[in-house]
Description:
Elements (H helix, E strand, L loop, with lengths): L6 E5 L8 H11 L6 E5 L1 H11 L2 H10 L2 H6 L13 H11 L13 E8 L5 E4 L4 H8 L9 E3 L2 E5 L8 H6 L4 E5 L8 H6 L12 H13 L16 H23 L4 E3 L14 H14 L1 H8 L4
Parallel strand pairs: 1-2, 1-7, 2-3, 7-8
Antiparallel strand pairs: 3-4, 3-6, 5-6
Helix pairs in contact: 1-11, 2-6
Amino acid sequence: MSRDLKIGLALGSGSSRGWSHIGIINELSRLGIEPDIVCGTSVGAMVGAAYAKGNIAKLEAWACSLTKFDVAKFLDINSSMTGFVHTERFHDFLNEYIASDEDIIENLSKVYAAVSTDLESGREIWLTEGSLIQAVWASMSLPGLFPAIRYNDSWLIDGGLVNPVPVSVCRALGANIVIAVNLNGDIVGKHLGRTGTKGLEKKPNSGITKKITDLVKEYTNLSFLNGDEDEEQPPGLLNAIAASVNITQDRITRSRMAGDPPDIIFSPKLSDIGLLELYRAREAISEGERCVQRKLPEIEYVLGMEL
């Protein structure tokens, strides 16, 4: 592989499925592939920031230790009703496992960008300088879960609404080869199909999402997160949010990558992992590793290297 070849890694959005980014990064590293440019959207921005800061192993250990109750503790309704996520706890998490408030993007060892969306204009915003934590937070501000973030006189929200897999950003920042991770390839209809319309879980041998919903209700006292609705009622709140985001991101991803396809694309099969099932990190990370292994011949061909 030529030393002049700059490899870009485009880490896509996908909530809990984003832990698979860790497995992909680890497996690429094992093969001796270290991207020069890291661009991320939403959870991809977060994992990418941890990687660029040298905290990926620390983040992985924390993710694999999560329980359903740990996830429930991150959820709350604030007095302004701007989101479900307890912002102080999330800020503490970012500081401990991603970066400090003082870390700036320009000082990273890799070129880094996080993608966000201007709430007023709908424009795609690339965060390539300044506070790393603020860039990650702005890229992850999924409406309904996180409040919008104020940045340069604009309100920013989740970048997945405009560019779920930021291939274009990698190329604009100088990447000759772009390796992309699409977490949205097999998700449309799967979440609702798995849980049905009766709240957040119907599968008789699982009950996982219903249990976490019960924990959230107990922790936040939110009666409208009831998982026992009648079948004639619409899907539960989190179910509806997840399905809506899935549809939007799938359609945008297909359109964007048709016009600007990556050189290598990994598509983890993780449609059964729901929006807030962050405690299933081991499954997601393992699938990320398998994704890379399945593509070894293609990686060798595109990068011109023997693995």
